[in-house]
Design a protein that fits this description.
By secondary structure, this protein is an alpha+beta fold. The chain has a single domain, classed as Glutaredoxin, CATH 3.40.30.10. It has 10 helices and 7 strands. Strands 1-7-6-2-3 form a 5-stranded mixed β-sheet. A two-stranded antiparallel ribbon has the order 4-5. A hairpin with a 3-residue loop joins β6 and β7. The relative contact order is 0.21. About 2% of the residues have low confidence. InterPro entries: DSBA-like_thioredoxin_dom, Thioredoxin-like_sf. This is DsbA family oxidoreductase.
Length: 242
């Protein structure tokens, strides 16, 4: 869908806090990785970046997937779709080319088949500590380029340490069920909003961009949503004379 959609569920509320961009995405999603890079590029080009806050929302493309560290993604796809490995690799050529354009070196033949629920719990925790963006990027890189098992506690703990989080606190988080409710909440909200595919970007609860769209579309959505957010806040803020 190569356009910006106005959202019917916009709250219409204004706030003086930074403008919010919510991103529903999965870790086991190459287009989510590409989309993250394109949003990141748009933000880097945007002159009012300091007025924007990005929140990573959880979504699972295959919630029932059973982790199997002995299997690689290409083998799994070939078996599940009845294709040869060569056919699977051919299917992925377009994704690799898109990734290269954003500086991502996809290594699909190394990707470990893994359920992402625990990784989403780690991401939610990191986000609560102000490290959500770094954690999301680290998880995507580990999954798609390093062949990491993102359902393995030791691997996830190491990734948390990589982005500056405490090793003992990460281990305790992973050993518990903490932040599971937050993950489920995001998934339930996506279902309520009829979000069936990711990445899905929501700008200030007013405009949506679905998929890893061209960079210029992110520039347009960001500029449009921010202009309206700023205008609404100007109206809501009392003047000095009053």
């Amino acid at each position: 869908m190569e356009h910006i959609a106005a959202l019917a569920y916009s709250s219409g509320m204004t706030t003086r806090d930074p403008m919010l961009i919510e991103v529903w995405s999965d870790i086991a999603c190459p287009f989510c990785y590409i989309g993250k890079r394109r949003l990141q590029g748009a933000l880097a080009r945007f002159p009012h970046r300091d007025e924007i806050r990005v929140e990573w929302r959880s979504f699972q493309l295959q919630p029932q997937l059973v982790t199997d560290a002995s299997r690689r993604l290409n083998e799994f796809l070939a078996t599940s779709k009845g294709l040869s490995l060569a056919q699977v690799e051919q299917m992925q050529a377009h994704v690799r080319a898109m990734g290269e354009s954003e500086g991502i070196a996809f290594a699909m033949d190394r990707v470990v088949v893994a359920n992402t629920f625990t990784a989403h719990r780690l991401l939610q925790w990191a986000q609560s500590l102000g490290r959500g963006d770094a954690m999301k990027d680290r998880l995507l890189r580990a999954y798609f380029t390093e062949g990491a098992n993102v359902d393995d506690h030791a691997s996830l703990q190491a990734l948390a340490v990589d982005v500056g989080l405490d090793a003992a606190a990460a281990a305790a988080l992973l050993a518990s069920d903490a932040f599971a409710d937050e993950v489920r909440r995001d998934i339930a909200e996506a279902r309520q909003q009829r979000i069936s595919g990711v990445p899905f970007f929501v700008f200030d609860q007013a405009y949506a961009v679905s998929g890893a769209q061209p960079p210029e579309l992110f520039d347009q959505a960001l500029a449009q949503a921010h202009a309206e957010w700023r205008a609404a806040n100007a109206l809501a803020t009392p003047s000095a004379a009053s």
